[in-house]
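Moderator note: this is an archived Q&A kept for reference. The question asked for a predicted structure of one protein chain; the sequence and the answer are reproduced below.
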Amino acid sequence: MKLDKIDSALPSRNFAPRIYGVGAWTDHIAFAYDLVATLKPGLLVELGVDRGESYFAFCQAAVENQTGTRCFGVDTWQGDQHAGGYDETTFAQISAHNRENYEAFSTLIRADFDEACETFSPGSIDVLHLDGLHTEEAVRHDLEAWLPKIRPGAPGPFMTARVSGSGRSRPHKNYPDFSNSSWRRPTN
């Protein structure tokens, strides 16, 4: 079967995630792994780390594929209307896992997205994963704030879409270049 050939060629074919089944990304973490293993981004930022499932898949791929990727996970670890609330135990667990496995190249930034945005230079981010609050207004705000930080010609940003309110959050309707999977930030 042709799918078997494709599957055997993917970097994630032997991927055994260290963090699994703790969030909405369970069915997609092989994609996260393949993304980093294939693109080998210099700088990856995830907005909305939650319990770390997707973020640590990115980090694990960086280690196992020796990509040299520098990773930043941004979250307040206070929760929101989609993720629910957390107590300090969540951040303590995430922080400990990061320290024990990825401290050499991974930094957790405990701040809101607007505060953290100032940390990064324009055009410095190779991969941006938006996984914060999933309302149209919040995603639009994050896109507008963070797009200048993405390297020209970089793929993405990648967004997690969830049902929000009366329908799916679809900020891309206001950003025509997001209408297909081959979108890339213009190189000028």
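Archived answer notes: The domain at 29-178 is CATH 3.40.50.150 (Rossmann fold).
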